[in-house]
Each structure stands twice: as C-alpha cells, then as structure tokens.
Design a protein that fits this description.
The chain is built from two helices and eight strands; from the N terminus they run ββββαββββα. By secondary structure, the chain is an alpha+beta fold. β2 and β3 form a beta hairpin. The N and C termini lie close together (about 10 Å).
Length: about 120
Amino acid sequence: MAVVEQYARAHVVTDADLVEEEHAAVPVMLRYDPETDPRSVRVRLPGTTEWALSRALLEQGLRAPAGSGDVRVWPCGRVQAVVEFHSDQGVSVVQFETKTLLRFLRRTYMAAAKPVPHGA
C-alpha cells in the first residue's frame, strides 16, 4: 500500500499570535501511511509540529463539528474547514479549503484499497 502525501495551503493561528491580523497561507503537509497506521492521518505544521488524527474524525468534521480533547474539526462556511489542535504548548487553529481535505481523504481511501502485488 502506498503512502499518500499532499501539501495544502492553510491559514494557521496559534494562541502565541498576540496581534489579531490577517495571516498568510502556509504549506501544511498531509500524510497517510496505511502500513504504519491505517486509521489515522498526520498533519505537519510549519516548524515540524506534527499531529495525528483519525480519518473518520476528519471526514465527520467536514460535515458537522466533531472531536473532543486534543483535536476538533468543523466546517467553516461552505468552502472551508477548521482543524483545532490543543497541546501543553497551546492551541493551533488551521483553516483549510474543504475540497483540499476531501481530495486528500479520497486519495487515502484509494491507497488503502489497492491490492498488494504478488511477490511484494
């Protein structure tokens, strides 16, 4: 099974941001490795901060608010979605285009469904 990696442009706001201002989009890495963890996806924020969340949570959060604890996902209007990460260091809120996350999820399900060739 193939690893799926996709860069996405996202707006990231952390509680370390003291000034309320428009933040530029930054590249965020979305990653799925069915060999290592077939139920989770990883989101790597700039600065090497990486979070794991379940594919099911990400998919649910694109339709309605989902999650509790360290990771929450919810739709934001018709074309965006928000993923909120909580840690001891603070909170990071990441705003994505919904179609980007849907495309990534589709690719993860296709990768997980591919048969392994004989002799591999």
